[in-house]
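Cross-posted from the bioinformatics board.
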Amino acid sequence: MDLERSVGIVETKTATLGDLRLDNGSVLSPTLIAYETYGTLSPAKDNAILVCHALSGDAHAAGYHSSSEKRPGWWDDYIGPGKSFDTNQFFIISSNVIGGCKGSSGPISINPVSGKPYGSSFPFVSIKDMVEAQKLLIDSFGIQKLFCVAGGSMGGMQALQWSISYPDFLTNCIILASSPEHSAMQIAFNEVGRQAILSDPNWNNGLYEDNASPRKGLALARMVGHITYLSDDKMREKFGRNPPRGNLLNSDFAVGSYLIYQGESFVDRFDANSYIYVTKALDHFSLGKGQELTKALSPAQCRFLIISYSSDWLYPPAQSREIVKSLEAADKRVFYVELNTKEGHDSFLLPNAKQEDVINGFLKMPVDE
Amino acid sequence: MIASKVLSSKTLRERPDFAYILDTISPGSRVLDLGCGNGDLLYLLKQKGIRGQGIEKDEDAIVECIRKGVYVHHGDIDEGLSHHEDKRFDYVILNQTIQETRHPGDIIKEGLRIGKRVIIVFPNFGYWEVRFRILFQGKTPVTDLLPYRWFNTPNLHFLSVLDFEEFCQIRGFTVEDKAFFTDLKQVRFRANFFAKLALFQIR
């Protein structure tokens, strides 16, 4: 544990906020949001940055929950004293999304009407709803304007939605490895994952008990997902074709064992219903293409930094360019860089000196330029 | 911040073309710099209150631009600028870019669609030193403005002042202004022979 540049020991808190009317018309009451904060909110409350997580992420973005925790939060390389999101300067808020299973309102929450977990009776949640819930949280801090909203992948969609839902509420917006809408291929991968869950004997229409959940289906869903987060090069480098033994009954390739391990460990920390809700939110998110997208983005007032990664085949650079071109067509202020990486979609999470440089430069720009 | 300012004043002294462009464009204008490199020119324009934006294909140069706070798009200008509206910019600049593009005519035409004026700066292949190198060495010239060898040059085209004037005539571009430079000063006499660098403003 390198505490010198770490935010140290942190705690996930839960805010209980008011009613939230969702996109589909139903009302979430109360709205619970799990979150963590790092750094100090300035007296003027003008140094806050909201960090949005990806599909299976959570509020734990930096630091450690205990001295025995082996791995820090998911964006620890970028959040901390002297890091890109410098906690000496900024007040960082990382909030968990609604619909998930890491402490915010979601399918495993107790339905106040029935006294039991919602399961699949939890209302449909959109990316826009996730943003609305985050807005309630930010309001509860008394913050009038965020200095920046940043996120990768699904977090990037939230950041993009923030820029148009609340144009006057953010100065900067950072979108990494993201997309204005899912392609058929992206939906297809998510559909395979959902079908794996639905075909698990324990599925029970989403009304499964905690001790008899569709573990196998969720593990399979994660395995498919995990393939898409890596790159062929990275997998080749990590596993190659080793070791092929030709055993029909066991997983005989290293990459297979690795995926099985990833799938099984995921089941212990994620809920199958949440996987369905969150992937559906991703698939339904659509700001359109071409002129439609330009129109959708026209309310935005903030500055944008868009980053894509050469080896990302799940959210390829062309999707980021689509956002960039539409922003430019709508006459917005935008920086765009495609970083040359080998690690695939996960690149945005990994240490990268150029990414640090770019984020630092962007956040240091005077507010009015 | 201090470091980039030192760099900028040095750059300006060594780049009479930058100084000329800074003089030409008035504050409040909007500029698109095609092939903006590390953003030095855009940074200077920004200091003068000119809203600039660049396109560049080199990753390190892009990182440098963002560090300077210069709005930049990582991409290839040969792959289209079609998303930009007609006459969105007051000036489109191609500073030592045109010789590296696959289809210079198309790029300039596109530049004239999205910009009211296009400023083109290129190394003059008619410069006396270039001519002498070919004549006396019999080899593809390597000079400070054409610093590459034949096998590693990004330059696809080699053009002189006369070539470009002829090109403007053929394509029907109106030359509104031109300026020629050697190392630190402007050239006003027999430009195609004495100028290392040529600047044309067309419409």
